[in-house]
Amino acid sequence: MTGNLQAIGFLLSWVLLWCLGAVALESVLGRAGLLSSGNSSVIVAVIVLAWTAAISLGGWALFNRITGLSQAGPQQPKDTWSSIPPQLEQWLTQLPPLVQGQRRLVVLLSQLGDFDSVEYAQALMQRWSELQDQGIDVRAIGIGDRGSGERFCQYTGFPAERLSLEPEAGLHRQLGLYSGIEGFGGPWQNLLAMCAGIGSPGTLREVLRGYHGGGQALPFWIASIRLRNMIEVLGHWRTYVPDERWMTQRGATFLINDQSELLYSWKDPGLLGFSATMSDPLSFLTLTPDLAH
């Protein structure tokens, strides 16, 4: 929604600028006496076309520079792990060991009222039976307290016994996960900047996919789900977000085998970027261990 409003704002501003520029050009041409000649209509047409092209290209370049709309979607960060980071390894000691052939999917969610957290949980629940059949032990670590955890599990259906809570994003910070853009005046302002694509690559592209479907979903289907999620979260905001300091904190994904080897990892680069393939968030599970790094 924020991306659409920003696009509309840019469009209106650039239309106004085009009109003002056209009036100024007409005035300059008139003073130069070019409009009194017999071919004045041709001159005006050429000037207007050139001005339109310039203002269009300039507007798109500026809009893209600010929002990153035409940039590629989320890419695997270069500093992802080649083995299980010690901080996570320490956390894993509290869990029962995996049996032979079993894998463990550890998902560090952002704030439990975040789009990414809710959508990730919904994606997991859609394939929950399949995950269990494949012997994948799913664990999630979310930012929130007991109340937000209970509401989150109630809404998404995620098993409460498989959700751990980090009220102050302790593990996220220990792992050095992306804390979000800063410098816009506070958590809310920083979050809105990221919603507009600033410091959050691929966000606006993913927002737009929610409306056109991306070829894998009906138009507006994803957007309607996100709207329903937004209504749920905003209707219980203080429950989902007890501490606004972590509103921009991003998460990560780890896939581990029974030999404590890291098969796959992903660091969220921004909002709506919890997977490298947002149209199929769990596609990495089909990769073989040799290809999953």
List keywords for this structure.
single chain; 293 residues; alpha/beta; Glutaredoxin; 2 domains; five-stranded mixed beta sheet; 11 helices; 5 strands; disordered N terminus
CATH architecture of the largest domain: 3-Layer(aba) Sandwich
**CATH-wise, what's the superfamily of the largest domain?**
Glutaredoxin
Report the mean per-residue pLDDT as an integer: 83
Share in β-strands: 5-15%
**Beta-strand segment tally:** 5
End-to-end C-alpha gap: 34 Å
Kindly provide the radius of gyration, computed on alpha-carbon positions and rounded to a whole number of angstroms. 24 Å
Order of helices and strands: HHHEHHEHEHHHHHEE
Helix-and-strand structural type: alpha/beta
Based on Cα principal axes, name the global outline.
elongated
Q: What's the CATH C level of the largest domain?
A: Alpha Beta
CATH topology of the largest domain: Glutaredoxin
Lateral arrangement of strands in the main beta sheet: 3-2-1-4-5
Low-confidence segments, ≥5 residues, pLDDT <50?
Answer: 1-6, 66-74
**How many individual domains?**
2
Q: Number of DSSP helices?
A: 11
Largest sheet: 5 strands, mixed
- Roughly what percent helix? 40-55%
